[in-house]
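Page 47, continued from p. 46.
Same chain as before, 179 aa.
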Amino acid sequence: MSGWRDLLLIRQDLRVREHIEDLVALLRGLDDPEWLEWPRDYDCGEIGAQFNGLVAQLEGDFAAPCVSEQDTQDSSEYGRVAVPADATVCGTRIVVCVSKFGSLALVCADNPGAFLGTEEAQAEGELDAEDLTKVHGTLADLGYAIVPEELLECDYAGPSQLPWHVEHPTWWHRFFGSF
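Result:
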């Protein structure tokens, strides 16, 4: 293995919130100013197979078909998969966004930005802890690095020149945004 895959040695587990400094280091390590939309060693087929495995596993975990979109054009986000609301305890869909970089994944209730992270969604009764644990477990089993939305919404402070249309860049723009 080489490139961004080497950075995934932390292979996060369910204690993801305890490893913020590791996640910041991971984001900084993946941030190559020469490769904005995808990493230098990007393999669309490999990322696609991993993503298809994620969709299949979530469908099995929640016993429901999940809606997915993949190979997002002009974006550093590879795709999204949504666990339907009627398959969750709280009746709110769960969305998993996957980046083209380093198998980064974001988990959110309803949509990115609908809540200020999964903790707020849980506090408001929109996300069940066991449902979240299922999703985190599946992502960890498949080798995804789970990045909390709160971290992705922090100001971007890396070397890459982000697209002109991004007025207030965040880590979300860098690893999930449009170009």
